[in-house]
Amino acid sequence: MLATAMLMCASLTAVDGDTVRCDGQVMRLLGGGIPFVWGIDTPEIGSHAECLKERKLALIAKGRLRELLEERGLRIEIKGYDKTPSHRALVNINRRDGREVGAMLRAEGFTREWRPGHENAWCSE
Which of 27, 43, 88, 99 is deepest in the core (most CB within 10 A)? Predict the structure, then answer.
């Protein structure tokens, strides 16, 4: 298990609803979760979406994440790295008041729970 590492970013931007870019490094939000056990999932953006509904939901989630990232003093905790070829950092982003950004997105209905082997069907509902 990787010890938590803290990170500061000169530039922090939303890539999609559950992915950010910190100074060029792509990172996946855990939403308070535990790497490879549970986390959050948002609809896919652009050509990765399976339907128009998913694409629209993805843009809305990305917009809300962008708003949440505007606060100064965000704390980024690296909890591990995924198994993709790019080895994205798996992170929790905490606001000054202690609330975790991904958990806020989930509470507001922009994300769903992610677990290994579970697929979220954004188009069938």
Answer: 43
Q: Based on the structure, what is the number of domains in the chain? A: 1
Over the stretch 50-95, which tens digit does the pLDDT of each residue have? 999 999 999 999 999 999 999 888 999 999 999 888 889 999 999 9
30-54 tens-digit pLDDT? 999 988 899 999 999 988 899 999 9
- SS3 letters for 23-66? CCEEEEECCCCECCCEEEECCCCHHHCCCHHHHHHHHHHHHHHH
DSSP one-letter string for 84-96: STT-PEEEEEE-T
CA dist 113 and 96 (Å) reads: 24
Domain that holds residue 81: 5-112
Token couple for 112: 């769903």
